[in-house]
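User: Helix-turn-helix domain-containing protein. Structure?
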Amino acid sequence: MELDNEDGTLSPRARLGRRLRRYRESRGLSLRAVGESVGFPHSYIGRVELGEQLPSESLAQRLDRFFETDGVLTELLELARDSLLPGYSRDAVHREPEAKRIQVFNSSAVPGLLQTEDYMKEVFRRSLPGRSEDDINELAGLRMRRQRILHRKSPPYYWAIMDEAALMRPMGGNGCMTSQLRHVLAMAARPYVTVQVLPFSQGAHPMMGGSLTLHTLRDGGTIAVVESFDSGEPVEAPQRVLELSQKFDLARSLAHSADESLALIRAYLEKVES
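Assistant: Predicted structure:
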């Protein structure tokens, strides 16, 4: 079994695979027999055992039911997924469902909760060179699950500002960009989503080269995550959060209005479609 961590301990992915193999072997079952019992290809289950691939949530749940393991494999799957996230963003992602308002500024790409699956996979491929396609798929799956927050019965208010560069930069070809821009326009039509674009014409702005996410929680407190291209910082200190909130406000003051922003997005969509 592979040892992925620098200290020689099993990675969460490898730990899940080893546990699954123990459950299977303790019952004297072949991979094929397990696959037939849970309705998944035995080759897929074999890759999970070897730590080459994470199981889907559906597979983990079926395996837990089949081996009567009280959700152990599903819990290990969540730990393995967490290990794919940078440490600085883990706590913010876990607390995101508590947010009553989410404010995001992104200087180089469409904000994550507004991304289509194809677009986000291309972002991950470009920004995380050397990561396997399985990892890319898992990261995309994590982000897609996070997007469910915007489809809840009572979603948080989502306020996204993006630099115009995010609209101009082609990601994944015209088809990918067409779907992405249409998706942004569709999401912006929802009453609890506001999208603004900070245009090139404004020149320099307070958050060039990075991104900022502010989660306002039910108790009124705010947590922040600041990211650059290869690092990030979680922020909860009130004074620092205030400073970052002021930067967001400055960026918002420089951005087009919501209506002007949507008109600009439609103009870029027409260019991509032509």
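Residues 12-83 form a domain with the 434 Repressor (Amino-terminal Domain) fold (CATH 1.10.260.40). The first strand starts at residue 99 and ends at 106.
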